[in-house]
Amino acid sequence: QVRLDESGGGLVRPGDSLTLSCAFSGATFTTYAMGWFRQAPGKEREFVAAVAWSGRNTYYADSLKGRFAISRDNAKNTCYLQIRSPRREDTAVYFCAASSLADYDGGAHYRSAVHYSYWGQGTQVTVSS
């Protein structure tokens, strides 16, 4: 059974960089694309970023492009999300997820939560001075 364990969340000041990690276990990591979503209080879960199995192709929410960086280390079965210059509006629970769908058509399907089979429990990120 696939298991995803996020870590790295916490309290961060605006402008400080933060990197979240997602440890994958229970299956072959390279058969899954990985995504990050977030959910702020009172809001719906939203797509942040995704990375295809090889790490070569990455996809971002248009509104977040440039401040977030997704990557993966297939040797360590781990996916990362760097948040650069976080803002108060980035406060949310961040979830990583795994999708068994292949990378095609510009990765549009990775933007939808319904295409992910496995989810982590989430890690809280609070941006505050």
Protein architecture, described:
The protein is mainly β. It contains no helices and 11 strands. The strands form 2 sheets. Strands 2, 4, 5, 6, 9, 10 and 11 form a 7-stranded mixed β-sheet that branches. The chain has a 4-stranded antiparallel β-sheet with strand order 1-3-8-7, with no helix packed on it.
Task: Offer a few descriptive terms.
about 130 residues; 4-stranded antiparallel β-sheet; mainly beta
Low-confidence stretches: none
Count every helix, treating DSSP H or I runs of 4 or more residues as helices. 0
Order of helices and strands: EEEEEEEEEEE
In round numbers, the mean pLDDT is: 95
Q: How big a fraction of the residues is strand?
A: over 45%
Shape: globular
Structural class: mainly beta
| Tally of strands | 11
Strand count, sense and barrel status of the largest sheet are: 7 strands, mixed
> Helicity range of the residues?
under 10%
End-to-end distance = 40 Å
Rounded to the nearest angstrom, the radius of gyration is 14 Å
Set out the fold topology.
Elements: E1 3-7, E2 10-12, E3 18-25, E4 33-39, E5 46-51, E6 58-60, E7 68-73, E8 78-83, E9 92-99, E10 118-119, E11 123-127
Parallel strand pairs: 2-11
Antiparallel strand pairs: 1-3, 3-8, 4-5, 4-9, 5-6, 7-8, 9-10, 9-11
